[in-house]
Amino acid sequence: MTRTPRALSVVALSVTAGLLVPATPADATARFTPGAPGAGDPYFPDMGNGGYDVAHYDIGLRYDPKTKGITAVTRVTARATQNLSRFDLDFLGPLTISSLRVNGHKAAYARTGAQELVITPRRGLRKNHRFTVTVAYSGVPRTVDDPALGTSGWVPTPDGAVMLNQPTGAATVFPVNDHPTDKATYTFTLTTPKGITALANGDLKGTRTSGAWTTARWQVRDPMASELSMLAIGKFDVLTGRTRTGIPNLTATDQVLGIKPDLAKKFLDQTADITDFQASLYGRYPFTSTGGIAVKAGIDYALETQSRPVYDMRRGGAIPSGTLLAHELGHQWFGDTVSPKRWADIWLNEGFATYSEWLYSEKFAGTPVQQSFDEAFAAPPTSLLWKGKVSDPGRDGIFDGLVYDRGAMAIHILRRTIGDKAFYRLLKAWPAAYRHGNASTEDFVRFAERISHKNLRAWATTWLYSEGKPPLGPRTGS
Fold it and tell me: Is pTM beyond 0.90 here?
């Protein structure tokens, strides 16, 4: 427990947890206390931090293929939400810090616990004031392997590396407030040997080559959760264009996959077509560009990294299927622009992304959504699909079929309950209302009730808050 310090008016110092923080005259009567070392998410108590809100990350990174390591400087711009004596960032070893400054001045720091970088500035940081943290560091970032959640963080590839951060990988590469509730804008300045491409979220603002090195600058202007940030370094074939509605589109395929040019072009075109199709259903595309990156990373999943999903391809020469593209691009509305308040709410990401597959299959393959529902619902009552609660799958269950298929089934039953007119209005109104923000399961239930003018407690209790295979009534089943 941390004691709340008393102000010492005579010597003008704030005392907190045994630390003496020099104060300006204006600080003499202020109380400065440490920011919380977590965001309060029970699934991942070490993730995120309290006491401040990040506005922007400026990440400068140089990759050396000889050592497989990086040399980097990350500048974090944030606003204090309390009078801070000290605060934490999430940052994992074995990256070694060579310099750390707060507002341009050297600051004390310590690395503790699972991933805490505890920073004590020379002076207390006043509530509502902006501050900067600049960290210089180097080393080979670690890869996170979790038995239940798979591989994330910095993942080496045959010709470089890819950074995939869901749920906890961002801190392997840069110091961060690593929880979806603290979204920020980003700038990536990435330097690689000439001939090696560096890709990131957002928009490419320019490249320059000096001697044997090439630097690319990427800008993310829309707020982004850290778990959705992405880097991909390797020998890529890059294609650009625009969707029919004018959205900039960039796709890239790692040369090691051996994807032929006609298939690479199909990847670009399908991404464009599906983006526009989903915009017609879900409302205006929420980001400045769309696209996708095909890699060979051996992680066996695709990820909805903001504006530019990453697809790990198992088979050489292949591109992502239409349903997979529909899933990850559907996330741009459900999961990316509207992100969960807590990881327990992840069905709002995965249920809608799976339903996006069903809508795609109906439009482009002639498979009715009801048929997709029936096939999923056919799982016997003993199936793991019916074990647990959609609204609270447990830390190790956030990527289980419970939140994907059963989440999509819950959405379809909601559609049958409120009718198509209200349902399609909901599909557009929900991402618009919570654009670039966070929402919980209960937020969604209340919002759907307002849109439909129906009491949806019975639906929510049966499909979201209860275990077991639900019965199908005459108005909600096939």
Answer: yes
